[in-house]
Design a protein that fits this description.
By secondary structure, the protein is mainly α. The protein has helices spanning 17-30, 50-63, 72-87, 91-98, 103-110, 114-122; strands at residues 2-3, 10-11. The protein has a domain at 36-68.
């Protein structure tokens, strides 16, 4: 459980098997001290800032010639979009994951489109 610095709300983080394996390999090979951060600045050894992550994401997007304005927040929104579109995760669950106050906030956040609402009307029951 972590306390989010932006909202002050508690949030539970879990990792899947792929992340677990990658972390285990990293920890076995690098063997960081307990006081070290997983995502630390090379210069300061302190945690990466949002600004640093934004700069990295922008750099990665440029390196693969991806047009658009991408940043740290893009990763979060893309996670939600993929969960919703590819895996059918509902807005209620995503609202809980994002620590939003309601599914309506998540719907606005992820940009529920009129086309998606209209598609419901085309379902034959």
């Amino acid at each position: 459980m972590i306390r989010e610095s932006k909202t002050g709300k508690n949030n539970i983080l879990m990792i899947n098997k792929t992340v677990y394996r990658a972390l285990r390999i990293f920890l076995e090979n690098v063997g960081p001290d307990d006081e070290e951060y997983l995502f630390a600045s090379r210069k300061t050894k302190k945690p990466l800032t949002i600004q640093s992550v934004n700069a990295l994401v922008k750099k990665w997007a440029r390196e693969i010639n991806l047009s658009g304005n991408y940043g740290a927040h893009t990763l979060r929104k893309t996670f939600g979009y993929i969960q919703r579109i590819e895996f059918g995760v509902g807005f209620e669950v995503l609202a809980k994951r994002f620590n939003h106050t309601s599914p309506a906030v998540t719907m606005r956040y992820l940009g529920l489109t009129s086309d998606e609402v209209n598609e419901v009307l085309m379902n034959e029951i």
